[in-house]
Amino acid sequence: xxxxxERLSRPVLSFILSVxxxxxIVAVVLAACTSSSGNPGTMTQPPQLLPVLIVQQTPAxxxxxxxxxxxxxxxxxxxxxxxxxxxxxxxxxxAHVKKGQLLFQINNRPYLEQLNNAQASLAAAKxxxxxxxxxxxxxxxxxxxxxxxxxxxxxxKTAYDxxxxxVAQAQAMVSNARINLGYTQIKAPVDGYIGRIPHxxxxxxxxxxxEPLTIVSEISNVYAYFSLSEDDxxxxxxxxxxxxxxxxLSKMPPVQLVLxxxxxxxxxxxxxxxxxxxxxxxxxxxxxxxxxxxxxxxRSGGTGRIRIPRLNTESLVIPQEATFELQDKVxxxxxxxxxxVASVPLNxxxxxxxxxLVNKGLKSGDRIVYAGLDRLQDGAVIEPQTLSMDSLLKxxxx
Length: 398
Known about the structure:
Helix content is 31%, strand content 33%. It has 398 residues and is an alpha+beta fold. Helix 2 packs antiparallel against helix 3. The N terminus is likely disordered. The strands form five sheets. Strands 2, 4, 7, 9, 10, 11, 12 and 13 form an eight-stranded antiparallel β-sheet that branches. It has a four-stranded antiparallel β-sheet with strand order 6-5-3-8. It has a three-stranded mixed β-sheet with strand order 20-1-21.
């Protein structure tokens, strides 16, 4: 049977057109893949233009920090030297007092009566002495004229000596009673600030009281105590010149005190003494630095950190933003042959501001990438734009 030429139905025509369109898309994709893999004329991205620093040695000061506790140059515990009821408290906690200022009053009536009793005993002893002296005076000419035996005179003189001793004893009792009466008034031994006052008016206090009445801190000068480990102590001995510890301490530069809010105390201090032995429990040795406290900012019981400066002249200075960290190590991208970059680990010997001090991993004259590290990987080629380290240090000094 012959088939006549008839028009294709619309569904069939749409299917054929779809097949041709799909084939065309596949052909374009295959051509693109072939072009990217085999065509030597393919376009590639140009090297990145990145700032590069030339590494150099620059003198820099680093700081070693140690936790410190603060104490007044004199922290004196005020303790009662007689027993009795606390009758009056003349100062408040935190008050500034002068030497000799009255702080506390203990009930003095028992001690006043003791003084009166001692004075009465002294008066009686003096009367007995006078009577003994009269007897000696009366018997002396009688013995000289052989009217009576000298035994009576010797007995009278012995009684006189005993009476004289009783007077001395009574005088001592009066002095002791006066001292005890004076102890009922407790005065400031130095200029300073009053600490906590745990006992209130009416409290029974005495020589056996566990807590002191208060502590007076003289803080015109404040001591900062800090400790060095045995390893740090040996480095300290090698760091400063001198044959003795005293000579080495005299060569130490002034130190700084970092307060609890991380601010730097206005006055520099001086390390004055070092303990005579290591603490066996902590394996550390204690140092003491002294700071002037003219403004009264520092108080006993405070804390801070001692910063000891150290001048480094042989380390390389690397800005921190030119580094990156990987697995707790610090790296830089060094520019090597053909302007390729390679990651290099660094050995950090200290910090100064926003700079690392490096003693291993780089050498003077090496080039490192300063910025754009997040867009780099080992082997990448860059177009270096040299940045002067001196110009960077002028903008952001050490």
